[in-house]
Amino acid sequence: MFEKIIKDKSVTRNADTSTFFNAANIISLSRIVLTIPAVWLFAVDKWVWGLIILGVCVISDWVDGFVARKMHLVSDIGKFIDPLADKIVAVGIMVVMIIKMDFPLWFLIVLVARDLSIFILTNLLYKRYHTIGGANITGKLFIFVLTIAAVLWIFEHYLNVILYAEIVLYIAFGLMLISWIIYLVQNMKMMNYKEDKG
User: Fold this and answer.
1) CA-to-CA distance for 74 and 130, rounded, in angstroms?
2) In the chain, which end has fewer C-beta atoms inside a 10 angstrom radius, N or C?
3) Is the CB of residue 165 less than 8 Å from the CB of residue 152?
């Protein structure tokens, strides 16, 4: 529907199904559930096991998208659950890191503001067109770099080594701002889209 104005296929891909409980969505939902033991493990300083579960979450983020595309299980609810699961994992881990590892609170505040604005626009878009745009490539890259920054930060804290986690975090911050702008522009374009009937 929006292919003429948005060239990112991951954003404009139409839903294949409206089924909620399918393999891809269950994998995304499992990532939300895994946030609980991951946060607890970091909270009690069992950080190696926490990293293992975090690794499973990262792998599942790739697997659910692969399964959705290959098995034709892309759904609007899946487009919503997948990034939501990412953010729940990220926020959960960041809260522990802020409390225990001197992770910067300002980063979490900006992330929440970004995601709240995207959520509002996504909700408005769904009410108007009954469709949800997928995650853009820059947003996916941001999550990837943020994960690397978080892992380096955890290693620096527990192993007392210098791995330049703060530099990687600033790179992630730049990608977060760029992806934020792209999301806003894309959603506004879709909100204002007038389909050519001719």
Assistant:
1) 15
2) C
3) yes
Write the pLDDT tens digit of every residue in 15-73. 778 788 899 999 999 999 999 999 999 999 999 999 999 999 999 988 988 898 888 88
* CATH class of the domain comprising 9-191: mainly alpha
| Best CA proximity match to 38, nearest among 97, 78, 79, 125 | 97
Report the 10 Å Cβ neighbour count for 46. 13
Handedness of CA 56, 58, 59, 62 (dihedral sign): positive
Q: What is the CA radius of gyration of the chain?
A: 18
Look up tokens 């199904």; give the residue.
Answer: 17
Phi and psi torsions of 90, nearest 5°: -60, -50
> Could you report the per-residue pLDDT of 62-91, keeping only the tens digit for each?
898 889 888 888 888 888 898 889 889 999
Q: Which contiguous run of DSSP H or E holds residue 109? A: helix 105-129
Instruction: Please measure the distance between the N-terminal and C-terminal CA atoms of the chain and give it in whole angstroms.
Output: 14
DSSP 8-state code for residue 19: -
